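Human: You know discrete backbone vocabularies at least as well as I do. Show me how you would write down a chain together with its backbone fold. No explanation is needed for now; the record alone will do.

Assistant:
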Amino acid sequence: MANDSSYLAPSVFLNHGGGPYPVMGEKNNLDIAKSLREVKNYVNLNLLKAIIVVTAHWEEDIVSISSGENPDLLFDYYNFPPETYKYKYGGRGDPVLARKIFDALSKEGIDCRLDDKRGWDHGVFVPMMLVRPEADIPIVQVSILKNQDAKQHYEYGKILGQFRKDGVAIFGSGLSYHNMKRFREVDTAEELEIENQEFDDFLNKVCTGDEQTREGLISWKTAPGGLLAHPESHADHLMPLVVVAGAGGPVKGRKVFESAFYNRFRLSGFSWE
């Protein structure tokens, strides 16, 4: 892997699908799997020095940063085939970068901690198995906050954004629509009307707008369909998008992925490059 210190790495929101389904090739996750394999088409992975992955599956009271050099995999999903608990992803951590993130957040008064014990959860290793199967780019996993306060996530994303100039990409790993009750209820046998279209339109407007427009993401709860797409206190899968939007800097974002999940729910991915 070659590095170029002049490369401004992107800030990207990835839809990571359901558990290990994208890696398994499950039919409702095929578009997601394809989109993860195609990240290399708009992110020059060969120029990255490292990747910061903000994962929906790690919630803490304060921002927590993985600082281990060789993290294990945390199989934090349930009732899947035995082979999905034997996956391997031989990537390495980056303790030096983890410390720099800690120092940068602390300097701005954001409570945070280093964690050299926790393994990479499936919000990290599942998408990265498809994004970069070679596992040769160092990764630092970063948590979201249990309070799911959008403003706090946006602000700490701004701080993470400073590392982009050093060739460090910021990946947010979640889902732009995540209502588990509706996932269980929906009949996928036929293509139906997209039920979260208004909220997806809102995400597209704020994420592809200028920096001032993007701050509208902080008020996502008042957007049409916001609390249907991400029910109150269950917006963990939206918070990584808020973080990477904060890290996006002055440029407008662009849409890099769209799919009808379960033939009913619009998913969208965005990149700030």
Observations:
- The beta strands are 11-15, 50-60, 63-66, 112-115, 139-145, 168-174, 254-261, 265-272.
- The chain is about 30% helix and 20% strand.
- The chain has one domain: 11-272.
